[in-house]
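Example record

The entry below shows one chain as it appears in the dataset: sequence first, then structure tokens.
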Amino acid sequence: RRVLFRSQRGLMQVGGSVDLYRKLLQNFLQLHAQEADHIASAWAQGEADDARRMAHTVKGTAATLGAYTL
């Protein structure tokens, strides 16, 4: 079975601070909740470079928080 989310690794990234980790997760959700729609829209409009950049940003940020598979 494939692990999609490793909260312990994300928590390690913030020095073990549960409060900070929780805040970063909440911020991530707020900032990126509509990102899939924005990426799809950019791609549909022929803005492939923008779509790739947005996807790369979300993927990198998610990995830092412990989400390795989106």
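Notes for this example: The mean pLDDT is 91. The radius of gyration is 14 Å.
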